[in-house]
Specification:
about 450 residues, 10 strands, two-stranded antiparallel sheet, alpha+beta, about 20% strand
């Protein structure tokens, strides 16, 4: 009898173990499938994002860098008459700047009796046609100067012919009544690439020539984002502290959370209209203050939500330890609780900065934009400024290749600014894992 009971218990124990093992294997399989699907979805989502970033980097780099390509030519000519044989030689070096589209030249020659020789740079249209005179060269030797390819239309086609070896230097002289001194302009294969500092420091020039840069837009973005942060960060952090540490579940706290959630999903153009009505119309002009206030309104709900939720994750035992030592609540909140949650609070600030750095609609309604640098005076706070989102918006609407290139460059600069701000804030605030004192790790 006892043996039968033992066998039944053993069977039940094995059945339970088998069920546990089966359930565990099933759970592991489900977890693996779920993990695989999640990774696949993330990878699929990253494909278009990665292609966009690659396009921004590829096209934006062309505006941030300049390439100087070297060309050279060798001139030869001779003519024999019954009385004398005339021969002349020459050479020339050329440097082409792909940013300014200027072709600098230095051409020397010898063997001609007269220095007043007509000369020019020509382009061979077709073998059966005569060469087309593109630019006239100065008289005398050496011939030194530069020519602007933007004067040629279409400039891109002329530039392609230059690199294809279809450009020539032709010198006409009285020594050659029936001939000319000709040399083909060929690239040497040498090119130097350097940073185009004008792109970062100069104001925008003519859209058709690609002159200037986005200096005022970079300055304006840094100023308006910093101005908005001075308004939004303290308000957002303090509000989050109040909701987490002091408000509790009161009706007022419920209303604050409700409106904060509403403001989080508010369209940015609506916030821009609010800034236009409340500040621009009152002051009477588009100004940086209106733009900063509009952007701070976008920042505050993000910072409030992240700050409140991050502070709630701090264990109550930490607060109780501070209170047990007789420390006032406000000091416990600011120097213990907030310090413990500073990484999460910082994350909310970085998210808010990243959000407002690329906003365009509120800035159109508040600061409008300008091609001038911001003047650091009291009057400057009531004047319009430029910003990278506005500059990108305007450049994208232009039908010119140089404007499009500047737009890609401005987009890349905006991404780099946001990335730099995020890395700098995290580096300055994050806890040090190791502290060095007297060569020892503690």
């Amino acid at each position: 009898m006892m043996g039968d009971i033992s066998n039944v218990q053993e069977k039940r124990r094995r059945a339970i173990q088998d069920a546990i093992v089966h359930q565990s294997q099933k759970r592991k399989l489900i977890d693996r499938v779920f993990t695989g699907v999640t990774i696949s979805c993330i990878a699929l989502a990253m494909i278009p994002l990665g292609s966009i970033l690659l396009e921004v980097v590829k096209n934006g780099t062309s505006a941030m860098l300049k390439t100087v390509t070297e060309f050279e030519t060798s001139l030869e000519g001779s003519q024999e008459t019954p009385s004398v044989t005339t021969s002349a030689t020459g050479k020339g070096t050329f440097l082409y700047n792909d940013v300014t589209h200027e072709l600098s030249f230095n051409i020397t020659y010898s063997g001609l009796s007269s220095s007043e020789n007509a000369a020019g740079i020509y382009r061979q249209e077709a073998p059966e046609n005569d060469a087309v005179n593109l630019f006239a060269l100065p008289l005398g030797s050496p011939k030194v100067g530069s020519v602007d390819l933007d004067k040629l239309r279409p400039r891109a086609a002329a530039e392609e012919d230059l690199f294809s070896g279809l450009w020539y230097v032709i010198i006409y002289s009285n020594d050659y009544p029936d001939g000319e001194l000709r040399g083909q302009i060929l690239p040497t294969g040498e090119a130097s690439t350097s940073i185009n500092f004008d792109f970062f420091t100069q104001p925008q020039g003519a859209f058709t020539t690609g002159e200037g840069g986005i200096g005022p837009a970079i300055q304006g973005t840094l100023i308006v984002v910093g101005y908005a942060s001075l308004i939004g960060v303290p308000v957002g952090v303090l509000t989050g502290i109040y909701l987490s540490e002091y408000a509790g579940n009161s009706r007022f706290a419920y209303m604050v959370r409700f409106f904060n959630n509403v403001m989080t999903g508010m369209p940015s153009i609506v916030i821009g209209i609010v800034g236009y009505i409340l500040i621009v119309l009152v002051i009477g002009s588009f100004n940086i203050t209106a733009g900063a206030v509009a952007l701070s309104i976008i920042m505050i709900p993000i910072i409030v939500g992240v700050t409140e939720e991050t502070l709630k994750l701090v264990p109550h035992s930490i607060r109780e330890a501070g209170h047990s030592l007789g420390i006032p609540k406000w000091r416990v909140t600011l120097f213990i609780t907030l310090r413990s949650a500073k990484n999460g609070v910082l994350t909310g600030i970085v998210l808010a900065l990243s959000r407002i750095a690329g906003e365009t609609a509120p800035l159109i309604m508040t600061i409008l934009g300008t091609s001038l640098f911001f003047q650091f005076t009291l009057d400057g706070l009531t004047n319009p400024v430029d910003a990278l989102p506005l500059r990108i918006f305007r450049l994208a609407a232009q039908p010119y290749a140089d404007a499009e290139s500047f737009g890609w460059g401005a987009a890349l600069v905006l991404i780099l600014i946001v990335l730099s701000l995020s890395m700098a804030l995290r580096f300055l605030v994050l806890d040090r894992r190791y502290r060095v004192s007297g060569g020892a790790r503690v």
